Amino acid sequence: MSGTVSGASSDPPIQNPETLIFRSVRAIDPARGFDQVVDVVIERDRIQAIGAGAGDQALNSERVRVIDGDGRWLVPAFVDLHAHLREPGQEYKEDIRSGLRAAAAGGYAHVCVMPNTKPVNDTRSVTELMLTRAREVGGARLHPIGAITVGQRGEALTEMGDLRDAGAVAVSDDGVCVMNAQVMRRALEYASNFDMPVIQHAEDHDLTAGAVMHEGEVSSRLGLRGWPRVAEDIIIARDILLAEYTKSRYHAAHISTVGAVRLVREAKSRNLKVTCEVTPHHLLLTDAAVIGYDTFCKVNPPLREQHDVEALVGALADGTLDAIATDHAPHSPLEKECEFDAASPGLMGLELSFGLLLELVRQGKVPLERLLHAMSTGPAKIVGIEAPRLTVGALAELTLVDPSLVWQPNQVTLHTKHKNTPFMSHTITGRVLMTLAAGRVAFEAPGVHERRVSEKGAPA
Ligand code: DOR
Prior knowledge:
- The structure is a single chain.
- By secondary structure, this protein is of the alpha/beta class.
- The protein has two domains: 3-75 and 391-459, Urease, subunit C, domain 1; 77-383, TIM Barrel, CATH 3.20.20.
- 30% of the residues lie in helices and 23% in strands.
- It has 15 helices and 21 strands.
- Strands 3, 4, 5, 6, 7, 18, 19, 20 and 21 form a nine-stranded mixed beta sheet that branches.
- Residues 1-9 and 450-460 have low confidence and may be disordered.
- Bound molecules: (4S)-2,6-dioxohexahydropyrimidine-4-carboxylic acid.
């Protein structure tokens, strides 16, 4: 590691010394059942040593930086399966620079980005453009997801082999559903030639025509048109049958219903190649949040009811859910400061997800190792990214967190361009302090400096 990179314009320059020592930190790697207070030494991008006192020897290195790990956790960096970074075409909402900065600030070393850009990422050239921009920006690594169908129109399949060769890790028409069963069948068959999962946005658009929130008691009271659970479940049920028939890999994006959980659980019990993800907001909020017509609570799929939330949390705890994906979907005031019916759906989420979700661990609903798995190893496996690991020799892709730091999103500098989330004035306990991506410090919060211990040769 060497040199400096700058973060958001307001961030101090990031120091990348030759050697980085995390002193007496609680190091957790669920993939190998590791959970101990140790020193972790990073040298030239890789984890050099892990163990009690392992930092002592490294203190003699030339350019060393020591981070006090007391009360902090060091975990494999997060992997987001599902983010909308809006570039190309809608950079006023987000761009690859701001999106990757936000990702690093949220503890993510890898971000998979959805293809509903303008133009749609349905060709090699758009995929390449995204990757080129990401390389210029640095920090968290970007992995494009190509479209399933040309223009996401649900008709002709894209050149998936071309997309894969250019760097796409999966295909999805996220934002819209592949409604036609024949197109979906062919997509599953075609994508399996390239070993890419097909990621479905499960929504029967006939059943959701004009809908702006979950169909239930709250939608009736508010006089808003609802989208029923069955619109999601019917597509997932059909797709599971198609995945079984074609022996292909199928991934259900942002599942939100008790029925979807049941369907995926059953498919897994029969060893089908079916996986699924959930968003933080579907784990934490119900449709009651929409009372007051807060457009920041308008999202697709919509926030559901308490028993859906309970089913999702249970599925996260028992491993039915493979991944937590942010569905980071920034929108500008133009799309949100309007009547509920007209607002665009989506919440931003990259910078808040870990802190918010830690609440489920504190409440005893989800074991910590399950949460960490679903934010890193689980999603990495689905798209074939080498999972970040806390083992000697591994590339340093690590996240340092303070699990007891109390903060409010509206009192800190966020890197994303827009603040469309109902959690802005929420009090969150637990915060990402530092993220290493591809062996380099991609983010550090001001608090890390304050508690930095300079024992020897620390950089100026
Ligand atoms: O709420 C959503 N917003 N759901 C989606 O599937 C798409 C996303 C967006 O692109 O804004």
